[in-house]
Each structure stands twice: as C-alpha cells, then as structure tokens.
Amino acid sequence: MSTVALARPRPLSRERVVRGLWRTVLYVGIVAGTILFTFPFLWMIKSSVSPPAEVLLNPPRLLPSAIVWENYYLPFERQPFATFYVNTAFVTITGMMGVILSSSVVAFALARMRWPGRDKFFFVMISTLMLPAHVTLIPTYVGFAKGPELVGLTGQGGWLNTFIPLLAPEWTGSPFIIFLMRQYMMTIPLEMDDAARIDGCGWFQLFWRIIMPLSAPVMGVAAIYSFQYHWNAFERPLIYLNRIDLFTVPLGMAMLNGRYGTDFGGLMAMSTISLIPVMIVFFLAQRYFIQGVVVSGVKG
Fold first, then answer.
1. Can you give the pLDDT at residue 65?
2. Which pTM value belongs to this model?
3. How far apart are CA 76 and CA 174, in angstroms?
4. Burial level of 241, CB count in 10 A (0-12/13-18/19+)?
C-alpha cells in the first residue's frame, strides 16, 4: 500500500510576520486618516439635510432625524443664486484661460529662449511670491477705480462693479503657475527644438505645436489650481463688486450669514453644491496632477 504524504504547512518566518504586521498597521492608519480628513466633508453633507435645530445641537447627532431638502432650494428662492453661479462660472473659466495662456507664453520664453537677463528676470518674478497680496491691495484698487477715469475710458468709479478687476490681472500671468510651467518645460529635451527648426517651425509653431502638447500634465495642474482659486475667490469680488446681480457664489453664501442669525442648513447646502464643479475638474485632471507637480520640481 502506498501512502500519500500530506504537505505540511510552511511555517511563517519572523520576517513575514513582521511585514504582515507593518502592512496591517499601514492599512489601519490609511483608513483612519481617510476618515479623519473626509469627516468635515461628510459633516457638511449631513448638516445640509438636517433640520435647523439639529445643525448646532450639542452633543451633535451623527445622523439627522429627518431629511430636509428645503435647504437646497430655499436659498435659490430667497437670493439669486442661479445668477451667482453663472457669474462665478464666467469669472472662473475666463480667468483660468487667461492664466494658462499668458503664463505658458512667459514660461516658454523663460525655459526655451535665450536672451540677456533671462535668469535675473525669473528671479525677480519669483521674488514677487514673497510679497503679501494685502500690500498691493490699496494701490490696485485705486488703479482700477481712478485709472480708467483719468484717461477717459469710463466715467466716475472706473472699473468698479465690473468683472474687469477680477479678470485683467489673470491675463498678465501668475508667478506660481509660470514657475511650474517653466520647470516642466525645461525637462523637455532641447533636441526637439532643433528638430522643429529643421522642419521650418518658428517660435510660435514651436510653442503651439510642440511644447504645449508635451506640457499637458503641467497644464492640468495649472487648471486645477486656477479653477479652485477663482471659484472660491472671496476677497477680490468683495472689494470690487457692490451690485448683487454681479455677485459670485462666495459672496452669495456670505449673504446667508445675517445680522440676527445664520441659515446654517442653506449655507451647508450651497457649500456642497459649489464643491461639485471643483471635484469634477479635479477628477478630470487628476491623472496629470501628480505627474505635473513631481516633474516640475525635478530640474531647475
């Protein structure tokens, strides 16, 4: 009679046990961190559908006792939030296009062209990032309010209560976006410029047909940063816009905070809705985000 020897289970080594424990600790830490960082977002959604008496309840309730959908449509009835979203979309899209186009041109000149004083100009431009925006707030306001009036472009008030103060600076480039694009464009081999020159490409064709398509990752990064900045901008619209029909979403949400009370349910609901476009843009451009940020800091 033949007997079949059963294979004994292989004993776990000390190294495998330690590796398994570390992996378990790592997964538990990731899950805990995810819950910690998403908790404010989940709390915002929960508060947007909670009855008004439960939003500030102490101790708080993890789940609302009833779903209140009125928080999502009552603000549209009390304030022109539809107009606010249209204004915000216009300012955001126009400003994002201006930042990307103007910054890409400057970054191309700093990364691919050779001209006297290039590095010094880049250093001066980067140094402006250390200048607080509040330092230039008053002269910028005076310039938009009095400048067009002095040269006869507009009447009294200049460009106040228009979108020009929000959009005109964006078409002159952003130092941070220029820095990212310049760093990325410097990683593209210069041999491609020589090949394009042999094929008869000029500077514009080299920029538009060669460098721009190859810079898609950093363009995605710039789009995310610019979209989020313009969509959530509060200070500049607050300073330059006084007419309600020109308000953006952040200013509209500030109107829900009244003198005698705050509509926390409506505020959370409008915050949830305003977050949707930012999330859509991020998920559409996320495959470029990490690649663009990492590669942009490789070469200086």
1. 83
2. 0.82
3. 34
4. buried
